[in-house]
Amino acid sequence: MNNSTQQLSLLVINSAQLEGDSQVQHHFGPEGGTLGASDQDNWQLRESIGSVLPGHARIDVIDGHFCLHDQSGQTFINGSGSPVGGDRHVRLSPGDELTVGPFQIRVSLGQRHHDPALDELMDKRPQRDMDTWLEDTQHDAGTTHTVTKAPRQDDPLGALQQDSHSVSSLVTGSMPQPAFSEQTGELSGGKETVNQSFIELPGVGRTGLTHDESMVAALEIVMSGMGGNLAVTESSTAAEMLFDMGRTLRALVEGLLALQAEQGALADKLLRPIEDNPLRLGLDYHDTLSLLFAEGQSPVHLSAPAAVAELLSNIRLQHTASQKATSVALHSVLQAFSPEGLLARFAHYRRGGQGESAGWEWEMYQHYFRELTSSRQQGFEKLFRQVYAQAYDRAVRDGLEPL
Description:
This protein is α+β, with helices and mostly antiparallel strands. Helices cover 38% and strands 15% of the residues.
């Protein structure tokens, strides 16, 4: 009899690294458990190089949430360059990826149907019993089997794991007739392989996620990448949120392209053999989008997160440099209008025989101001622009990171 409980499902993505009788997938219930290389671990992960330790990590339930405790201090999450560390617990979210030794492990959460019969069939049956079961089933008298040609799969159980959230989500209430598929592959994560046809498991459907489930799953992946965790169960709501995220991303890319088009002065300071940021190639929105996200993107172009981060960093640098340059230019203008500077300049305007009368300085200043603001003069603007350009250039070059 099936029941439904809150479970954490962990799936090894690179299952070819597994050895011995290690299982590709494991479910943790509210009681939690450990994963590691020891026989005492709830999920045993065996490999050849010894990088997975006994009790490598532990799954605990804290305040109703599944959390990871890095007991070995050598467990990583979501591509981080630093381990989680044994002094804290990290709450796990759907779509998270753990690195345990050589294994990449994907996380999924939720209500999972548990079928003890399926566990007995997949996880507890020894290899020799499985072989005997296959052989006996193929020669079962009075049974007609249909042999069909199926695409090769490296892992025969992979068909049961197309939904990475859980093998159990594929279980249906129907009991289809057994049918053979000619396949070759590993029946477990170990080195021993079975090079023979195998029977499809009774009671297990081949259907994947429904359209509604796909929408919710896609939103979970996007939210994981954004570092958020919004609980959405309605497919219509998930579709609207995904559409709004797409529109937001478009506005962001178009805005960055427009800003970059106005950063000619800053672009001239980025002295590199090639331009590897797709946002700085001068392309339109659609071409830039292809370079950022398409499958065939250039291996020498920055990834989308790195390209956006670099451009935003340059924008901040430009803003800082502009503030510094403005301050320096204004200071130069003020110095040019200092009383000492003006008097020294006025002294050179005096012609022979012209003496200093009372109020001569004020009279000279009035002449000076009229000439300064006349249409034939541009010295004031030129002074500001020249000083600003030099100070801006210096601030930008000081702020740019060396290659």
